[in-house]
Specification:
Oligomer: single chain
Largest sheet: 5 strands, parallel
Number of domains: 2
Radius of gyration: 24 Å
Number of strands: 9
Low-confidence stretches: 1-5
Structural class: alpha/beta
CATH class of the largest domain: Alpha Beta
Mean pLDDT: 84
Number of helices: 13
Strand content: 5-15%
CATH superfamily of the largest domain: Vaccinia Virus protein VP39
Order of helices and strands: HEEEHHEHHHHHHEHEHEEHEH
CATH topology of the largest domain: Rossmann fold
Strand order of the largest sheet: 7-6-5-8-9
Shape: elongated
CATH architecture of the largest domain: 3-Layer(aba) Sandwich
Length: 338
Amino acid sequence: MTRNGTSTPTVADLVKAVTTPPLPLRITAYDGSTVGPRDATVELHVKSPRALIYIATAPGELGLARAYITGELLAPGIEPGNPYAAFDSLQACKHHLRRPTPAGMRAISRLLRRAGLHRPEVPQIETPPAWRRALAGVRPHTETADKETVTSHYDRSNRFYSLVLGPSMTYTCALFDSPGTPLEDAQRRKINLVLDKLDLAPGQRLLDIGCGWGSVLVAAARRGIRAIGVTLSEPQARWANAWLAREGLADLAQARVMDYREVPERDFDGICSLGMMEHVGVHHYDEYFHTMFVLLRPGGRLLNHQITRRDSSQRNGAGASWAATSSPTGSSPPPGWS
């Protein structure tokens, strides 16, 4: 393993030590080394030794995610907001991994020493891991823990989310009738489908659990439905109530900063919970559904929407990178989980 006639290992040497060719992507590095097909459709660039440190100290998707979100691992030609081609290529690399030889391990060690191997600071965007929260006395899925999780993820400023989510500020999935359907139209179709399924008449009462920035509240109030939304995020509630006021709908709907377990009203004609169940935790599902049925009038309608797994072969918990940046206590079990 040489570079310019020396015995200094390169980043390409490191990659070769732990993979078998041909790789499904091309990797270039700060030291000028390259590995992988020249005609690969996806290229990753290791910008600095810091990327190696992130990957070495948190092997797997978490280290890669840290390097990517801090700008130390680049994907030239890939739209930052749509990096799935790069993710697919990385996923395919799993089939090319191999255990390095003793000589390969020595080369890897030398390269990491030259990179200044140490445990780097965790990127600020990350939520503290469950073990650190436990040491601080925060038990998972208590009201305090859920408030902290929501604050960490959703209180990054309404301006930021307005740039990402667009005018409707809809954070859950959308319903497309064709590939050319604009995102905002697809989001509107999804919300209308939710309200159509609840089939509430003007004057009836709706509770939206995890109401976000209020898109369902606004759509419901436009139909004459009296709606209450609850969220643990103060910026979300402010946005939702300001939106309702601009629309002249504040007399019909409101957003509250409140845990769904603390809602004092009862006998709602309909309840919806869209994309909130991922934060509940599988061991709290009984409490979650019991609480909603207590809040719902007899014969009322409940619509629950969540992300799930394809099948029971996948684990329930969040992946490492999702847990670190989005939902440290999140879970998405497969259909039929019990």
